[in-house]
Specification:
heterotrimer; A: 292 residues; mainly alpha; two-stranded antiparallel sheet; 2 strands; globular; disordered C terminus; C: 290 residues
């Protein structure tokens, strides 16, 4: 039982780490960035390139991957979202343009690295092991658990207490008013995409390290989960996303232990559906959702 | 802005054209020989160059291309050269069907190899069956590909890829004997391939008097496999069966090493993947395969050497199987008397018997299924080696 | 002439899939036109496909009857679902319908009669091209007429402003539900047709990817009129075949084309075909959706 609890905490942390960046863009810009799974994957492959081709140590690779995916986020905005914003296109269009960018980036990665999963060169991945009594904790897994909570706290602090955070919240409320109030809207949007994508990239690298495996579609299974997590926690709330992630993680493991094995996957979506119908604001939703 | 976006796009496309590090198989190796006395014999290969199963390439196309080159260099089929036409099936059914139709209606091929996935074959094979064109399946291992098919008679379909019905019982028998199995747990995925494997594994264990004490399903969307292995551990089995594709199998191997050290992971064809070789815990694998790179048979050593010379990398099983299918087809074409008559080619294929191939002596059963040895393997020093 | 027949025979599946895609795009168009972003149509398609295929297999039901029952089964499922989820709007509605789609997929995966993950194989290829294109013609014509009718105007009004519409006496809930059920009916019909094109169906054919794909058809084509979804489905389904010669770079060009279309014609391809009229409409804000 203790083992399954530990498993659930770890799974919840993965979902949280992935969902944070996704939720950030949504909370500020009301955009569902369907390229987020691709950014996640890109982070892992940039790290692989840094380690495998450039021969750099893992922590340098991690830093490079976070930086590159952050910058990619800004490019993504310029290519896929900014032109649509400028034209006042319907919100749907931005979902499609982000899908289009994903299609291109995934294929580019496949042309370089193939479509099958691959591993890091032997010995390149950090392997700290912590011994607590007779249980062993792997450093990288511990890092994922700690980081998912730490980043949530840090981001919430930035949003609440700093000038950038105030700018972002003004932007989230009303872009036009924010501009009139002297907020540098373009800078704020760029910052949002940088942070969101850097978080996605970080999640990708850490997950690839934890499993020592990466492939061009590694972000896809997490996409629907991220929707669930955001809705359960409350769209637009970062602490909500993290809490939602742990609820989902625990729920999935519990349903594996207690439910008939084939219906396990129905749990996540049943939960999602139920929350939407009963309490669409989610657990910590601050903004009133678009509801009649 | 318009211009900037356009420039950006051009940049992306340029990047794309430099990004390709993979070997492109030669589409029509025979087109250079203009003076061929007879028209080329056309053969279609439908294979997943894009989509979910794209990692079977370029190996799958390379294997067939190598065989075609060798056959043409050796003088072709009664003076006529082989021409291989490769089409992407996109890993999806409708594109696979269209590729088959194109081969049959436009290219007028004499036979077809492929497609890569069994789910795509379920749509594409009936087209060839209706059109009366011989097909050799080169990587479909599931149920209902040859013999008894859901769509009615499938006598135009042959299979050169060792089916799980043949490989899994051999694997289970060897594993039961050598590991003294009494009780196992099966962890399985929810796709067609994994469910077929589940069925076959359960029958094989029953035949060997081994109890399957628990079946645990995961879905294609699961990321972490620790909870599944923890569930299996609760049963205290002698070994765990991974009825899965290679990706999940890698994670199951790692969790097994952590949670149940010393216990082996028995698998189907999904575990027979070169991508698993670098895994630190690949030594736990027990799997039945259609091909062993280490096989010292001369046909095989020649094939491995020629492949490495031409493409610069070692072949894998998918290359060996598509190469074999082409050798088998060429043998039938030679014996058919008329290499453009599809019915004659089908009849000749039925007569293939103990042909020397990299997979070992090769024949077709009366169901048109492959009859060849199964190699029960494990992994040692990053290579598949016979399981002792 | 022979060449033409060769072409038709070779690409008959592609042509059939284009027609089915167009029907699906129209099914999602109905709700989009009423301003509702739903992603449940892949699931309705699955219901139509499985019901029709199973009726044919186990009860020897005549093909048109099987299709009809499949379509009505989908519509029947949409009725209670719509009543529940239409309290939500925008992204919430999209995610709720998506969750519904995933639940349907999981049920298909767990049910023996639907063949679980193995799906149903060996479905007879009963669907002829004219079945699909006649359906498309009828559906497009009916929707075109509906668009100009009182119901169509009510949908447009709801899309622009729900509260204002309600205050003018439009039964907002009923109209939204009607759009949803009609969409499900069309999607179910299209599903039944498509099951009898490719010999085989399995739950992975009707997942998240399909739901998004259908939406992309409609949005790329454009929502101002029924031509949009047909155009979008036609172009995007034909594209992989047209781009076949590009081999390894096919996905990249497809992505690039999709990006260019959505950036330069964000209101869809029909705005290119019918630029002047749409410009006038967009000035008065009549083509804004979702």
């Amino acid at each position: 039982m203790a083992e399954q609890l530990y498993n659930a905490v770890f799974i919840g942390s993965i979902y949280a780490l992935f969902a944070l960046g996704f939720a950030l863009v949504f909370s500020v810009l009301d955009i569902l960035n369907l390229a987020h799974p691709t950014v996640f994957m890109l982070g892992a492959f940039v790290a692989l390139f840094a380690i495998g081709t450039l021969g750099l140590p893992w922590f340098v690779a991690l830093a490079i991957a976070v930086l590159v995916t952050g910058l990619f986020g800004i490019v993504l905005d310029r290519v896929a979202f900014a032109p649509l914003r400028r034209r006042g296109a319907p919100a749907l269009s931005s979902m499609i343009s982000s899908l289009a960018v994903s299609l291109i980036v995934v294929r580019l990665v496949e042309l370089r690295y193939g479509g099958d999963f691959i591993t890091f060169p032997a010995g390149a991945v950090p392997a700290f092991v912590l011994r607590v009594g007779d249980a062993t904790l792997e450093g990288i897994r511990l890092a994922i658990v700690v980081l998912s909570v730490a980043l949530m706290v840090g981001l919430t602090y930035v949003l609440r207490r700093t000038q950038l955070g105030r700018d972002l919240r003004a932007l989230a409320e009303n872009p036009r008013a924010a501009r009139l109030l002297g907020v540098d809207v373009d800078r704020a949007i760029a910052a949002t995409f940088f942070v969101s994508s850097a978080l996605g990239g970080l999640a990708g690298v850490l997950l690839a390290f934890a499993y020592n495996t990466l492939d061009s579609r590694m972000g896809v299974p997490l996409e629907l989960r991220a929707f669930t997590v955001m809705v359960v926690g409350g769209m637009g709330s970062l602490p909500g996303a993290v809490i939602g992630a742990y609820i989902l993680g625990f729920g999935e493991v519990a349903s594996l232990v207690y439910l008939p094995t084939e219906l396990r996957d129905a749990f996540a979506f049943g939960l999602l559906f139920l929350v939407l119908v009963v309490r669409p604001t989610g657990l910590l939703g601050q903004k009133s959702p678009d509801r009649v | 802005m318009m211009r900037r976006a356009a420039v950006g796009l051009v940049g992306v496309l340029l990047l794309a054209s430099c990004g390709g590090g993979t070997a492109t198989p030669s589409g029509n190796p025979a087109t250079a020989t203009v003076a061929a006395p007879k028209p080329d014999i056309k053969i279609g290969l439908a294979t997943a160059k894009s989509g979910a199963a794209n990692f079977y390439n370029p190996q799958q196309s390379n294997g067939a291309a190598l065989a075609v080159d060798q056959i043409n260099t050796a003088g072709g089929i009664a003076g006529a050269k082989l021409q291989l036409i490769v089409e992407d099936d996109g890993s999806v059914r409708d594109q696979g069907i269209t590729a088959f139709r194109k081969f049959i209606e436009q290219d007028k091929v004499v036979a077809i190899l492929g497609p890569t996935l069994s789910a795509v074959a379920a749509g594409a094979h009936p087209v060839a069956q209706a059109g009366g064109v011989p097909v050799i399946a080169i990587s479909n291992t599931g149920l209902g590909i040859v013999g008894k098919c859901d769509y009615g008679p499938c006598d135009w379909i042959f299979r050169a890829s060792l089916g799980e019905q043949s490989a899994v019982p051999e694997t289970v028998k060897a594993a039961t004997q050598k590991l003294g199995l009494k009780k196992v747990v099966i962890i399985y995925g929810d796709g067609k391939f994994e469910l077929d494997d589940l069925t076959i594994f359960k029958e094989a264990f029953k035949a060997n008097n081994v109890t399957v004490s628990k079946e645990i399903a995961y879905t294609a969307k699961d990321v972490d496999f620790a909870p599944f292995v923890t569930q299996a551990k609760g049963e205290n089995p002698d070994a765990v069966v991974a009825s899965s594709l290679a990706g999940p199998a890698g994670k199951i191997l790692d969790e097994m090493a952590k949670q149940m050290p010393g216990k082996r992971v028995i698998g189907g064809n999904g575990l027979n993947s070169a991508a698993l070789l670098p895994n630190a815990n690949a030594g736990l694998i027990v799997v039945g395969t259609a091909w062993s790179k280490a096989s010292t048979d001369k046909t095989n050593t020649d094939f491995v050497a020629a492949y490495k010379t031409k493409f610069g990398v070692d072949p894998d099983q998918f290359a060996a199987q598509s190469y074999t299918a082409m050798i088998v087809l060429a043998d039938a074409l030679k014996r058919s008397g008329n290499a453009t008559d599809r019915a004659a080619v089908k009849k000749a294929l039925e007569g293939v018997s103990s042909l020397a191939t990299p997979l070992g002596p090769f024949s077709f059963t009366t169901d048109h299924d492959v009859k060849q040895p199964t190699f029960v393997m494990t992994v040692k020093d990053g290579q598949f080696t016979p399981f002792q | 002439m022979d060449a033409l027949f060769d072409f038709l025979r070779t690409y008959s599946t592609t042509i059939a899939v284009i027609g089915v895609s167009a029907l699906l795009a129209l099914s999602v168009w109905v709700t989009l036109y009423a301003g509702q972003l739903t992603l449940g149509n892949a699931a309705f398609m699955a219901v139509g496909a499985y019901v029709a295929a199973l009726l044919g297999r186990h009860l020897d039901a005549p093909f048109p009857l099987a299709l009809l029952i499949g379509a009505f089964a989908a519509a029947l499922l949409a009725l209670p679902l719509g009543a529940i989820v239409f309290r939500l709007r925008g992204v919430y509605l999209a995610i709720a319908t998506l969750a519904f789609g995933e639940i349907v997929r999981v049920i298909l995966l767990a049910t023996p009669i639907t063949g679980k993950g193995q799906g149903l194989n060996g479905i007879p290829p009963t669907t002829e091209l004219w079945h699909i294109y006649l359906s498309l013609l009828i559906v497009a014509y009916v929707l075109w007429r509906v668009q100009g009718s009182t119901i169509g105007r009510a949908w447009a009004a709801i899309r622009e402003d729900e509260i204002a519409s309600a205050s003018q006496g439009i039964a907002v809930g009923q109209h939204k539900l009607a759009a949803f059920v009609i969409g499900a009916l069309i999607a179910g019909w299209a599903g039944g047709l498509s099951a009898h094109v490719t010999f085989s169906i399995d739950p992975s054919d009707f997942g998240f990817t399909k739901a998004v794909q259908v939406l992309v058809f409609a949005v790329v084509g454009g929502v101002p009129n029924v031509l949009g979804p047909i155009l979008g489905a036609g172009l995007l389904t034909a594209l992989p075949e047209v781009l076949r010669p590009l081999r390894d770079y096919r996905d990249i060009f497809q992505g690039a084309i999709l990006l260019l279309v959505i950036i330069y014609l964000p209101r869809g391809l029909v705005t290119f075909v019918d630029v002047r009229r749409t410009r006038r409409l967009s000035r008065i804000g009549a083509v804004d959706v979702a």
